[in-house]
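Assess this:
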Amino acid sequence: NTNNEDVTTTWKNYTSQDGTFSFKYPKEWYISDIKTDSAYGATMYSWILSNFTNPQINNGPKDGNIKTEFSVYCDPSRVNRTFENVMAQCNSKPPEDTQRLECVKIILGGKNYKRVISKFNDGYGGEMKTLSISTHEGQCEYTMASYIPVGPSEKAGINTLEQISNTFQIK
């Protein structure tokens, strides 16, 4: 691919059932069914996007495998929450076994997002990196959290995830 070539032109499009958000993903990747959970007036939609089949089974990550968990959490009590509330999480201490490599504000499609890159032990003798982007719009928080095994394919995986995140749009 040349630097000017947009690889996402051949990707699949995903649009939420209510039309509030969309993104593109590589056509050979897999997307799980959307799960909806509701409690105490809040609703959470979640699904998994991966470049390997059956990402529900966790028998240890393999180099080149990428698992991305998307979630949209909508809570009427959070209507006054701002993007500054989302960014304030950068000041919190990460879990003990996690090293936060980056926590910055980025702009995608004219909207502010928080991007966090962290590294942690995967529980199988290796290391994983997470790339997560999130933002807040109205009463909903949108999050894309991806898991990439540290290894030879790590850089290509992060590049693909950044391309996916660049196509994410909130309507």
About this structure: The longest helix spans residues 154-167. The helical segments are 83-88, 154-167. The first strand starts at residue 12 and ends at 15. The radius of gyration is 16 Å.
